[in-house]
Amino acid sequence: MKRYLHTIRQSDEKTRFRWLIGLSVTATLIVVIVWVLYMRAFVFTNTRENSTEEVRIGFWPVLKNGLTITGSSIGRGFETMLSGMPQFGRRTSTIQNPD
User: Fold this and answer.
1) Is residue 20 part of a domain?
2) CA 9 – CA 17 distance, rounded (Å)
3) Could you tell me if 15 and 38 are in contact, meaning their C-beta atoms sit under 8 angstroms apart?
4) For the chain, which residues score pLDDT lower than 70?
């Protein structure tokens, strides 16, 4: 394994970039698969054992709600960050060349 990593380190830039992309895609897929399995195992199960009705929440509605909450949180963060910018702009001056 050490020797194989050494050959990758000594290879050209294009080969190292291909390995970087390949390993990044692989790691992302593993994380997404583990996340989906977690969601199916713990979130979408019926918590009441003696309940007669089966309540299942769909994957896509949960994902949509999560993205909506995350998007609004990011939006509020940008609004807060950008609200201070006009004050920064007032403290700067513009120099114009005379005609």
Assistant:
1) yes
2) 11
3) no
4) 44-55, 84-94, 99
Task: Count the residues in the chain.
Answer: 99
How open is the CA angle 69-74-75, to the nearest 5 degrees? 95
Q: Which residues contact 55 (CB under 8 A, 6 or more apart)?
A: 46
Q: Which two tokens stand for residue 37?
A: 């399995």
Q: Do residues 68 and 60 make contact, with C-beta atoms less than 8 angstroms apart?
A: no
Distance separating alpha carbons of residues 76 and 4, to the nearest angstrom = 47
Q: Which pLDDT does position 13 carry in this prediction?
A: 92
At 75, list the tokens: 């939006």
Per the domain annotation, does 90 fall within a domain?
A: no
Is residue 43 within 8 A of residue 62, CB to CB? The reply is: yes
Instruction: With respect to residue 41, please indicate whether it lies within any of the assigned structural domains.
Output: yes
Whether residue 16 contacts residue 10, with contact meaning beta carbons closer than 8 Å, is answered with: no
DSSP letter at 40 equals I
Full-model pTM? 0.43
Domain encompassing residue 22: 1-45
Structural domains in the chain (count): 1
